[in-house]
Every structure is written in structure tokens, then in C-alpha cells.
Amino acid sequence: MGLGRYGDEINPLGDFKFKNDYFVNSKFMKKGGLIFLSFPVGKDCLVWNAHRIYGTIRLPNILEDLEVIDTFGLENSLGDNSKLGEYVQPIFVIRK
Q: Where are the domains of the chain?
């Protein structure tokens, strides 16, 4: 969201807006509801205009206000030794 790839408006914080609009502040996800999310995790960067990669800076912010119940594939994280643009794509089990 916010990268213009699908005709959406350019918005550097579009991913946070989407999270807040659809998971935190709306009835799309009921309190106690579960959702399975998957997005690239590695070093923080933007792969224009395909996707964002969430790292030590952006990952905690995107998960803020959501309860992470479990993850699958995060144990294979590339960590700080990864090259910019490399990523894994774990699954996050999240409860509102």
C-alpha cells in the first residue's frame, strides 16, 4: 500500500495506514480475531515500487497494537548479516 504499484496514491506510510484502518481501528477485524499475515523481513528497505522489507526499525512499528501469537519461518531470519534487498517471508499469527 502506498507505493503506486496498483494505482494507489504514493504514501510513505501507506502500510501503517492500511494496518490501522483495517486491523486496529475498524470492525474488519473483531477483538480477539486472528489473522495470518506474511510480508518480507530482512534489512529495512524499499524495493521500488514492488514492496517494503521490514527490519529492526519498521517491523516493530507495523506490529504495534497487534498481539503476535506465533510466527512460522521467522527463525530463518537473515538478521543483520543479510544483504540489502534479501529477505525471508515468515507468517505472523496475529490477534487483535
A: 31-95
Measure the CA–CA gap between 8 and 20, rounded to whole angstroms. 17
Strand partners, 35: 94
Q: Name residues whose C-beta falls within 8 Å of residue 18's C-beta, 6 or more positions apart in sequence.
A: 1, 2
Cα distance between residue 41 and residue 55, in whole Å: 6
pTM listed for this prediction: 0.81
The helix (run of H) or strand (run of E) holding residue 38 is: strand 34-38
Residue length, the chain?
96
Strand-pair category, 91-95 with 34-38? antiparallel
59-89 confidence digits (pLDDT tens): 999 998 889 999 998 876 656 667 888 889 9
